[in-house]
């Protein structure tokens, strides 16, 4: 069994999608449709930068999605590999869950782009710049990270945001609390804490204003039937019901990204091959979670050709 997975924020870089757009009309059509949906030449920012514009959350989120969907469309149109025929399920890391939903037909491309633009701007606006922070805890499991977060909070928000793999957990919250947590890592048996260069404290309770905005937007957004089930971030379990998924996307804004548990659940359910579309971020995590599973990261035309030839 095969799962197709989609990367989250941090996988963006200037030049993303250029090779695909030059090689395939299918990719160009994706980027053009996203540009039209947003009323913004996002494809030009993806191609040429500047990097600080691409890194803006409201640009990075739809850009990462567009790149991954372009990769999928090229795989389907140029190489005849249909996701619904070759996959058993899909999943995405944080914003990647929206990409996964687009890939299985729950949202059309234009709707996905507009939702992610709103999600990015809402998350950025939820907390004034400088008041929040995030840190990666290296050599930490979920139990150690949770204990550290509780110890460092001191009345402020300090919560586990991402449970990425058995040795990497990300915490999020007020800047002071996160800095205290980084200073306390050794006391909790954690190898290292690294402050992340992010503009807001994602996936913690400080994001509630953004969650409220997304609940309103999602309530007004039609969702189609899923061609494949989606493993949701906040439950680490399979979802096929649009109403249930709409609620989970709302909860995802403030909730923990349970990526380690999601991969483990897919693997325990029989998935032996994980295929990452549009990035090379998730595959290393997956190998740490499900070491015997095979992984592939598809970015270039060469990657896509090699994968299609292996089927």
Topology:
Elements: E1 2-6, H1 18-23, H2 25-38, H3 42-48, H4 51-55, H5 57-79, H6 83-86, E2 89-92, H7 96-103, H8 109-126, E3 132-138, H9 142-153, E4 158-165, E5 168-174, H10 175-183, E6 192-195, H11 208-219, E7 230-231, E8 238-239, H12 242-252, H13 259-268, E9 273-277, H14 282-289, E10 294-298, H15 301-310
Parallel strand pairs: 1-2, 1-9, 2-7, 9-10
Antiparallel strand pairs: 3-5, 3-6, 4-5, 7-8
At a glance:
With 311 residues, the chain is α/β, with parallel strands linked by helices. The protein contains 15 helices and 10 strands.
Main pleated-sheet profile: 6 strands, mixed
- Helical content (DSSP H or I, runs of 4+): 40-55%
CATH topology type of the largest domain = Malonyl-Coenzyme A Acyl Carrier Protein, domain 2
Rg estimate, integer Å: 19 Å
Beta-strand share of residues: 15-25%
| CATH homologous superfamily descriptor of the largest domain | Malonyl-Coenzyme A Acyl Carrier Protein, domain 2
Our count of helices gives 15
Mean pLDDT: 96
What is the strand tally?
Answer: 10
Biggest sheet: strand arrangement: 8-7-2-1-9-10
* Outline: globular
- Give the name of the CATH architecture of the largest domain: 3-Layer(aba) Sandwich
Which class of the largest domain in CATH terms? Alpha Beta
Number of domains: 2
What is the SS-derived class? alpha/beta
- Measured between the Cα atoms of the first and last residue, the distance is 12 Å
């Amino acid at each position: 069994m095969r799962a197709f997975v989609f990367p989250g924020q941090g996988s963006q870089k200037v030049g993303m999608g250029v090779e695909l757009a030059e090689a395939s009309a299918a990719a160009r059509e994706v980027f053009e449709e996203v540009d039209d949906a947003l009323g913004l030449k996002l494809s030009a920012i993806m191609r040429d930068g500047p990097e600080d514009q691409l890194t803006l959350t409201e640009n990075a989120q739809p850009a990462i999605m567009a790149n991954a969907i372009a990769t999928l469309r090229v795989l389907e149109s140029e190489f005849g590999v249909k996701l619904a025929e070759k996959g058993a399920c899909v999943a995405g890391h944080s914003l990647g869950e929206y990409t996964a939903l687009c890939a299985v037909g729950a949202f059309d491309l234009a709707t996905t782009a507009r939702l992610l633009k709103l999600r990015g701007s809402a998350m950025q606006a939820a907390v004034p710049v400088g008041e929040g922070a995030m840190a990666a805890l290296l050599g930490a499991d979920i139990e150690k990270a949770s204990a550290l977060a509780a110890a460092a909070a001191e009345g402020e928000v300090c919560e586990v945001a991402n449970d990425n793999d058995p040795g990497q957990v990300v915490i999020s919250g007020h800047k002071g609390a996160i800095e205290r947590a980084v200073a306390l890592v050794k006391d909790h048996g954690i190898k290292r804490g690294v402050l992340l260069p992010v503009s807001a404290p994602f996936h913690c309770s400080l994001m509630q204003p953004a969650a409220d905005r997304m609940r309103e937007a999602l309530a007004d957004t039609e969702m189609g039937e899923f061609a494949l089930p989606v493993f949701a971030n906040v439950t680490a379990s399979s979802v096929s019901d649009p109403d249930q998924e709409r609620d989970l996307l709302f909860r995802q804004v403030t909730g923990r990204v349970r990526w380690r548990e999601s991969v483990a659940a897919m693997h325990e359910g029989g998935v032996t091959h994980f295929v990452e579309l549009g990035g090379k971020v998730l595959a290393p995590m997956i190998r740490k979670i499900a070491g015997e599973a095979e992984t592939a990261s598809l970015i270039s035309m060469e990657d896509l050709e090699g994968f299609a030839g292996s089927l």
